[in-house]
Amino acid sequence: MSGFFQSRSGVAVSSDCQDAFNDLQFGKKTKFIVFRLNDARTEITVDKTSNSADYEEFLACLPENDCRYAVYDVEFEKAGEGKRNKIAFYTWSPDTAPIKSKMVYASSKESLRRSFNGIGAEIQGTEFSEVSWDAVLEKMMRV
């Protein structure tokens, strides 16, 4: 198995996930990464990477009817502290996603999340308003 970590659900995390995260965190080559379960639901893999700073492009990568994980390098201004960067970890589980998909994603999240050091905040979304730029900035300002 090519997994780096394995969840209680038996789903493994592909080593490609850690490589992509390292590129985002250290290489600053990537602005966001979207992760998904493979079709057999046995491994978490990289679905998409992008260096685009367009947050709407990132949101367009989150499907309306299925779950995903993602990380986004959030750049923002904090009063009195200047420009800041923090990495947000997203769990996207829309209400319209199949129940089985929501269950597998929920039980597999921690193995992916634990494989990444340096996460500044976790964002959970079941609808797009919960992952809007304003909602994310509000959460980042508090951490």
**Given the helix and strand composition, which structural class is it?**
alpha/beta
Identify the strand order in the major beta sheet.
1-2-4-3-5-6-7
Cα end-to-end separation: 36 Å
> Helix segment count?
4
Q: What would you call the shape?
A: globular
How do the helices and strands follow one another from N- to C-terminus? EEHEEHEEHEH
Which stretches are low in confidence, meaning pLDDT under 50 for 5 or more residues running? none
Write down the overall mean pLDDT: 90
The beta-strand count equals 7
Strand content: 25-35%
Largest sheet: 7 strands, mixed
Q: What is the gyration radius calculated from CA atoms? A: 15 Å
- Estimate the helix proportion, in percent: 25-40%
Question: Can you characterise this structure?
Answer:
The chain has 4 helices and 7 strands, in the order ββαββαββαβα. By secondary structure, it is an alpha/beta fold. A 7-stranded mixed β-sheet has the order 1-2-4-3-5-6-7. A hairpin with a 3-residue loop joins strand 5 and strand 6. It starts with a strand and ends with a helix. 27% of the residues are buried.
Descriptive tags:
143 residues; alpha/beta; 7-stranded mixed beta sheet; 4 helices; 31% helix
Write the layout of secondary structure elements.
Layout: E1 3-6, E2 12-14, H1 15-27, E3 32-37, E4 43-50, H2 55-60, E5 68-78, E6 82-92, H3 99-114, E7 119-125, H4 133-142
Parallel strand pairs: 2-4, 6-7
Antiparallel strand pairs: 1-2, 3-4, 3-5, 5-6
In short:
By secondary structure, this protein is α/β, with parallel strands linked by helices.
